[in-house]
Specification:
The structure holds 2 protein chains of 2 kinds. Chain A is an all-alpha fold. Helices cover 61% and strands 1% of the residues of chain A. Chain A has a single domain, classed as Cytochrome c oxidase-like, subunit I domain (Cytochrome C Oxidase, Chain A, Up-down Bundle), CATH 1.20.210. Chain A has a two-stranded antiparallel sheet. In chain A, helix 2 runs parallel beside helix 4, helix 4 packs antiparallel against helix 6 and helix 6 packs antiparallel against helix 7. Chain B has one domain: Four Helix Bundle (Hemerythrin (Met), subunit A) (Up-down Bundle), CATH 1.20.120.80. In chain B, helix 4 packs antiparallel against helix 5 and helix 4 packs antiparallel against helix 7. The longest helix of chain B has 32 residues. In chain B, 39% of the residues are buried. Classes of the chains: A mainly alpha, B mainly alpha. The interface between A and B is large, with 66 and 52 residues.
Chain lengths: 650, 204
């Protein structure tokens, strides 16, 4: 990372090191993976509330036919921002929060491979989220759907700069996701504790690893698609434009279907980027709360890997109504059905883990069980869409809305709440109230099914999605009322969670190191973990190392004579150069805070803002982008001249 | 060269424990980035191929290509890869003088390529191939333009290594810095071989 030329302490690089241990600057300059995880979690939760409010507004509009609460334009803006927010600003960063906080703990590392790049990811994510939502301030909200189909996005049909906010915001978010994915990929490949081979890694670490690969391979494609769209809108290129740019010119000859291909080559792997971390969380929670090791661990791993591979071969099942050839449709139908096989393996393995276990129905387990049930329903309706004739019937109806919410809300969000209840005591040192957790679960479970269950019926009855209202007498009134009631029940369940969180922070029961009798390395250290995580880097002798130590009978097989979690004193610290300090403890070296990730993130914000300023037609305002990029370049120089650690004074 | 005496150890003091694979973290990062960049250029090349031969109006890219001219600049870029290899070999031997020579040669050949591309774009523009004219101009300029941006970034990277070498900050122990820059540089070269073949050479 740093060029690490030996320089005079204490000041290395352009700026003096930030040193405040507490307070706002310590958070702005932190490169501690745990603090960054908390920042991700809080930011994503705020976006979750925003996206939820957008959903409640839409449900309020649809509660009765011919309602006039929202106009069609406002409704378009709301469903666009709801989808974009929930995918890119809620589920992905909530997963990233756990990647950040938990993965280094699960692999026995003191931080990620590139701590400053990690901070950079967060600040760029925040910039992208703000840029995406800036349109609300000037009344130019993206309103073309989260898929942004061409030619609706062309300057001709969407002259408002709302589309540009979406393009720039998503591009910036892509940079953040890529930076984070590179970091976790390298962290998991390189920084596993001794003995922690790949086939001993906890499933959540596995899904983080595979998700990172998916991000690394899928996000460049959306980056290209967004660049092409931006060029079409700003510089008059003709990637997706069918009609000529100027009157009298020849037809531009662009093909809108190209956008759909590029978008879905990205967006179908994106679906698995959203669900695989959730599956990883469930694979952690289910064994701990049924007190059995995960059933069929190798098959779970192979299933994750094959889902990831197949996810790149199914994109055109989103495009069955665009006139693909029969051969193409057959291929994509078959590959889509094939992906149900590894998914089914996972579901049956979770059920087999539960079978014969002594199940403790605590709040994390409830959410995990809710995940399995709801995700199965969503998966089954997904297999229905794999058939082109069935899909043609269901295209653009509420049946699809029901399907995607069963996998993304009933799936991802339920699992993320399972993760929040499971790891909250590790992060804060206090338990969330289990009674309130059960209440939240049942409210959310009932509200969720009231909202999205009826959408199956509405869809089969032909109610189209993305339309702001409907006529009376279509037979859709009852189920729309039910769905709206359900949505508000979900809203109440989120309020219960917020209450529970504040209550836990003030008066919650102290958790101790290992409140759930856990099986992975994060439960071997104090809650909340110290800055350096592990005093000594552990050595791992098998899967579920903590159970191997505590309950060899639970962990499956016992390795005779091997200490399941040895601490290898000869190993740790030697490379960390912290060496032994005077009082005999290891002086653990953790990376020092830095201003540069924050500044680089701010530079990217300015650069994106410059593109938005020029989107009105005045391309000279791209100079602002130049200023932003200059800030980024200066920051990268400052960054590379600054060693990761201040040199230790002898 | 007194700085060389105080050159940092091969593994600078960081919090990083011994890596699980024995590879260097930054090198793994660069390989992951290159994998990602494959998909980036893949999407741009596919965008070109989708419209290839379906262009409307004239001129289209094949009307204006000057293959002998572009072959020369492509040759310069390919030779820069050789210079890059020699730069890495030099620093691995600890030969900082040759490192400087070959880094400068690599960057210089890259600049020849970029200069050639600027001239080519200008000429094509005069002949009527524009970004907004038809899908041929659109996909050609954006694909080759982004490749040119990659080459330019590589030149800046090589020159910053060169400046550090001139200032006496490079030593044998830092050969990894040159190796990683080299990975990037070779990748950008390989991408050009593909673009040159697919866009210029294969007839429609």
């Amino acid at each position: 990372m740093a060029t690490a030329t030996a320089r005079a302490a204490p000041r290395a690089g352009i700026l003096a090191r930030p040193v405040a241990p507490m307070g706002i600057w310590s958070w702005l300059t932190t490169i501690d993976h745990k603090r960054i995880g908390i920042l991700y979690e809080l930011t994503a939760f705020i976006f979750f509330l925003i996206g939820g409010l957008e959903a409640l507004l839409m449900r309020s509009q649809l509660v009765q036919p011919d309602n006039t609460l929202l106009g069609p334009g406002q409704y378009n803006a709301l469903f666009t921002m709801h989808g974009t927010t929930m995918i890119f600003l809620v589920v992905m960063p909530l997963s990233a929060a756990f990647f950040n906080y938990i993965v280094p703990l699960q692999i026995g590392a003191r931080d990620v491979a590139f701590p400053r790049l990690n901070a950079f990811s967060y600040w760029v994510f925040l910039s992208g989220g703000v840029l995406m939502n800036l349109g609300f301030l000037i009344g130019a909200v993206p309103d073309m759907g989260w898929f942004a189909y061409s030619p609706l996005t062309s300057s001709q049909f969407s002259p408002s700069v709302g589309v540009d906010f979406w393009v720039v915001g998503l591009q910036v978010l892509g940079v953040a996701s890529l930076a984070a994915a590179f970091n976790f990929l390298v962290t998991i490949i390189q920084m596993r504790a001794p003995g922690l081979s790949f086939m001993r890694m906890p499933l959540f670490t596995w899904t983080t690893f595979v998700t990172s690969i998916l991000i690394v391979l899928a996000f460049p494609v959306i980056a290209v698609a967004l660049i092409e769209l931006m060029f079409d809108r700003l510089f008059g290129s003709t990637f997706f434009n069918v009609t000529p740019a100027a009157a009298g010119a020849a037809a531009a000859g662009g093909d809108p279907i190209l956008w759909q291909h590029l978008f879905w080559v990205f967006a179908h792997p994106e679906v698995y980027i959203l669900i695989l971390p959730a599956m990883g969380i469930v694979s952690e929670v289910v064994p701990v709360f049924s007190r059995k090791p995960l059933f069929g661990y190798p098959f779970m791993v192979y299933a994750v890997v094959s889902i990831a591979f197949l996810s790149f071969t199914v994109w055109a099942h989103h495009m069955f109504t665009t006139g693909l050839s029969a051969i193409a449709m057959s291929f994509f139908a078959a590959s889509t059905m094939l992906i149900a096989v590894p998914t089914g393996i996972k579901i049956f393995n979770w059920i087999s883990t539960l079978y014969g276990g002594s199940i403790a129905l605590k709040a994390p387990a409830m959410f995990a069980l809710g995940f399995i049930a709801m995700f199965t329903i969503g998966g089954l309706s997904g297999v229905m869409h794999a058939s082109p004739p069935v899909d043609t019937q269901q295209q653009d109806t509420y049946f699809v809305v029901a399907h995607l919410h069963y996998v993304l809300f009933g799936g991802s969000i339920f699992a993320l709440f399972a993760g929040i209840y499971y790891w909250w005591p590790k992060i804060t040192g206090r338990l969330l109230g289990d009674g309130l957790g059960q209440l939240q679960f049942w409210l959310m479970f009932i509200g969720f099914n009231l909202t999205f269950g009826p959408m199956h019926f509405l869809g089969v009855d032909g109610m189209p999605r993305r339309v702001y209202t409907y006529s009376p007498g279509m037979g859709w009134e009852l189920w729309n009322v039910v769905a709206t009631i359900g949505a508000f029940v979900i809203g109440v369940s989120v309020l219960v969670f917020i209450f529970n969180a504040f209550k836990s922070l003030r008066t919650g029961e102290r958790a101790g190191d290992d409140p759930w009798d856990g099986m992975t390395l994060e439960w071997t250290i104090p809650s909340p973990p110290p800055h350096y995580n592990f005093v000594e880097i552990p050595t791992v002798a098998g899967r579920n190392p903590l159970w191997l130590q505590k309950h060899p009978e639970l962990a499956g097989r016992h390795v005779p004579g091997a200490d399941p979690i040895a601490t290898d004193t000869g190993h740790s610290g030697s490379e960390g150069s912290g060496a032994e300090s005077h009082d005999g403890h290891h002086a653990v070296h953790v990376p020092d805070p830095s201003y540069w990730p924050l500044f680089a993130g701010a530079g990217i914000f300015v650069a994106g803002f410059g593109v938005l300023l020029s989107a009105g037609g005045n391309l000279s305002l791209l100079a602002v982008t130049g200023v932003g990029l200059f800030i980024v370049i200066v920051s990268i120089f400052g960054w590379s001249l600054e060693p990761v650690n201040e040199p230790v004074q002898a | 060269m007194q700085q060389v005496a105080s050159a940092p150890p091969a593994h600078p003091p960081t919090h990083v424990e011994e890596p699980s694979t024995g590879l260097n973290n930054r090198k793994v990062l660069m390989w992951a980035f290159l994998g990602s960049d494959c998909m980036f250029f893949g999407a741009l090349i596919v965008s070109y191929l989708v419209y290839r031969g379906r262009w409307q109006g004239h001129p289209v890219p094949t009307d204006v290509f000057d293959i002998p001219y572009t072959s020369v600049s492509a040759f310069a870029l390919l030779m820069s890869s050789l210079a890059m290899v020699l730069a890495l070999a030099a620093i691995q031997r600890g030969d900082i003088r040759r490192l400087k020579i070959w880094l400068l040669t690599t960057a210089g050949l890259g600049l020849v390529f970029i200069g050639g591309q600027i001239f080519e774009f200008t000429t094509f523009g005069h002949e009527g191939l524009t970004l907004g004219g038809n899908t041929g101009g659109t996909t050609f300029f954006v694909l080759t333009g982004f490749h040119g941006a990659h080459v330019s970034l590589g030149i800046a990277w090589l020159l910053s290594l060169f400046v550090q070498a001139v200032r006496g900050q490079m030593a044998q122990a830092r050969s990894l810095d040159v190796e990683i820059a080299g990975l990037y540089w070779h990748f950008v070269d390989i991408v050009w071989i593909i673009i040159f073949t697919v866009v210029y050479l294969i007839p429609i």
